[in-house]
Amino acid sequence: QVQLVESGGGLVQSGGSLRLSCVASGFPFSIYGMMWYRQAPGKEREWVASIGINGAITSYPDSVKGRFTISRDNAKNTVYLQMNSLKLEDTAVYYCRGKDTWGQGTQVTVSS
């Protein structure tokens, strides 16, 4: 079955960096665009990054543009989210999405 498994979350100080990974299985990963979303406590889930099938096209909302970078390795069925210059407001559960499927999420907590 289609499965997305995120990892790489954790506790980091403000200004620090983390790299999230999402390993996909059960579908032809290389022909699907992939996305990252996040959901903070008490807030709606919001989109944070998208990447096209070959990685050449990426997009971000203004809230993370210039700080977050999405990438993919089709040979490893994996999509990444490099997060730099993290802020307190980046604290959230981060979810991978592809082929109409959500991963289970990974918690990112930014402390002051």
Which helices and strands appear, and what pairs or packs with what?
Blueprint: E1 3-7, E2 10-13, E3 18-25, E4 34-39, E5 46-51, E6 58-59, E7 68-73, E8 78-83, E9 92-98, E10 101-102, E11 106-111
Give descriptors for this structure.
seven-stranded mixed sheet; 112 residues; mainly beta
Structural overview:
This protein is an all-beta fold. Helix content is 0%, strand content 52%. It has no helices and eleven strands. The protein has strands at residues 3-7, 10-13, 18-25, 34-39, 46-51, 58-59, 68-73, 78-83, 92-98, 101-102, 106-111. The strands form two sheets. Strands 2, 4, 5, 6, 9, 10 and 11 form a seven-stranded mixed β-sheet that branches. A four-stranded antiparallel β-sheet has the order 1-3-8-7, with no helix packed on it. It is globular. The model has no long low-confidence stretch (mean pLDDT 97).
